[in-house]
Amino acid sequence: MSSTPRKVPRMPRPPLLALAAAALLVAAPASQAEPFLDAASRDTTCSPCRDVDQFANGAWRARFVIPASYSRYGAFT
What we know:
This protein is an all-alpha fold. The protein contains 2 helices and no strands.
């Protein structure tokens, strides 16, 4: 008798990336999706090469007011 192990056929795995992309397309249609970067929050007077944070968030920072009851305000407040 031979002692070589028999190969057991495996089921093919579904492509995870394709399933994730399909789930995202079904979950958020393009017509209802919000823009990733809001153009109204940009400060176009600042060069992105000089200060990318000011360029991307400057207009939002100018509009945002910290509530008087808080000394600081963030995502976890």
